[in-house]
Input
Amino acid sequence: MNAPITSLLGEAIVALLLLAGSFFMIVGSFGLLRLPTLMQRLHAPTKATTLGVGGILIASMLYFVFETGRLSVHELLITLFLFLTAPVTAYMLAKAHLHRARAERELPPTGRPVGWATFDPGEGSDRSDDGSRPGR
Amino acid sequence: MLARLLPHPLLTLLLTLVWILLVNGPSAGSLLMGLGLGIVLPLLTRSFWPDRPVVRAPLRVVEYGLVVLWDICVANVQVAYLVLFKRPEELRSRFLVVPLDTRIPEAIVTLAGTITMTPGTVSCDISADGRSLLVHALDAPDPEAVVATIKQRYERRLLEIFG
Output
């Protein structure tokens, strides 16, 4: 067991991190409620929540270090998986939104001879059919 | 022979590590199970990864991670401020186009993911030839500055990492 003073300090740090994390979570949810357009609302869950989840995960790691003296690494994995999945989710939502609600002419031009991938059937792609990547 | 058995040595290493972390502690059993997964999964998914990404500067990966983490912290506060204190009508949300210098798929995916994870911007689409990204910014009074930051801070480093 830890000495009382360290556990008190530890508890304070954990509580602070939990509070900070919760604050960013609630701001993220509030943004979801408050922002008027879908594209703007898309920012809320991928955004303010990253620090929210981050704060809670760090709090959880510290808690187990203080409480059991052992380092728990599951939180790092949650971070890793979150960072892998959140952009994909946001991308799918954005793509669905582009398909449903926007015409390509509303988007800025690509600056390339071809259009955006969501609207372009793909003749412009320089990726060859066998899936090999274009030359570096 | 070794290249056929281990088409992606880095992926094998990563999967083994992730498995050991999942078990929450290294032991002979978890190492063996992790290695098994690390060898079988790349073989099963080989056709999705025709080429092997080259990481030229492994130390730069750490630097990149730290830069991104720091940016996430800073920008989270900015977005929280925008959400709480700005009226939605005042937000200058718009689409931006980021022209890409890199042609390496792994670098582009990492860049798109980074743009989404750093608050204030979401990457939405890529041009059909894979040479520009469509990015939505929550509040960008100066679109050129945002594009320049993305290129300067992230793409430059990714170019150094993936070559």
